[in-house]
Amino acid sequence: MALDEYRRKRDFRKSPEPQGKSGTTRAYKPLRFVIQKHDATRLHYDFRLELDGVLKSWAVPKGPSQDTKDKRLAMQTEDHPLAYGSFEGTIPEGEYGGGPVIVWDRGTWEPDGDPHEMLAKGRLRFTMHGEKIRGKFHLVKTSDPKARNSWLLMKSKDEFAQEGLTVEKMSDRSVISGKTIAEIENN
Ligand code: MN
Q1: How far is the CA of 97 from the centre of ligand 1 (A)?
Q2: pTM
Q3: CA 160–ligand 1 middle distance (angstroms)
Q4: Cα–Cα distance between 119 and 135 in angstroms, integer?
Q5: H or E stretch including 142?
Q6: 98 C-alpha to ligand 1 centroid (Å)
Q7: What is the 135 CA–ligand 1 centroid distance (Å)?
Q8: Tens digits of per-residue pLDDT, 96-148?
Q9: Ligand 1 centroid vs 44 CA: distance in angstroms?
C-alpha cells in the first residue's frame, strides 16, 4: 500500500507526525498541495501534491523558485498521508527526519493533463495556486540512472514568473501559525 514506506520509517509513539489513512480519496476537487519547510539534517522544503488520496512528495533542498531560470533539484520521497498537510511541529531528535517543520505554503494545484500519465513519463506539468507559490511549473525526472529519484522543479513562463524570486525573498513564516522554523522549535 501507498503509505507502507511512510509508516515503516517512523515510530508514532515518539513522533508527533500523523499516522494517516491510506488512499482516502475525496470525491470533490480541487487537489491540494502543501510545501513544508523542514530543518532536518539539512534544511529543505518538502513539496507535496495530493493525488489518489496521498501526498506525492519531493524534498527540494533550495526550495521552489518563481524564476524560470532556476532548476531546483527535487528528490522524490515516500508518499505521505493527506493528514500530513497540516502538520507543524518538531520531530524528536534521533527519529526519522528529526527537526522542526512548518507549513510554509499551501493551496490547490491543477495537473496540465493526466497526472498519472505525466508522472509515469517523468514529466509533470501543473499550475500552483498557493499563497506564495503561484502559476505554472514543471517537474522533470532526470535521466541519470544513478539518481533514480531525482527530478528538477522549474517555473514555466507565465504572468507569475519573476526574476530572482526565490524562497529567500518570500516570507519565512508558516501560512498556518505565522511562526518561523526557529519559533516552532523553541516552542
Ligand atoms: Mn522533509
Answers
A1: 6
A2: 0.92
A3: 26
A4: 19
A5: none
A6: 9
A7: 23
A8: 999 999 999 999 999 999 999 999 999 999 999 999 999 999 999 998 777 78
A9: 7
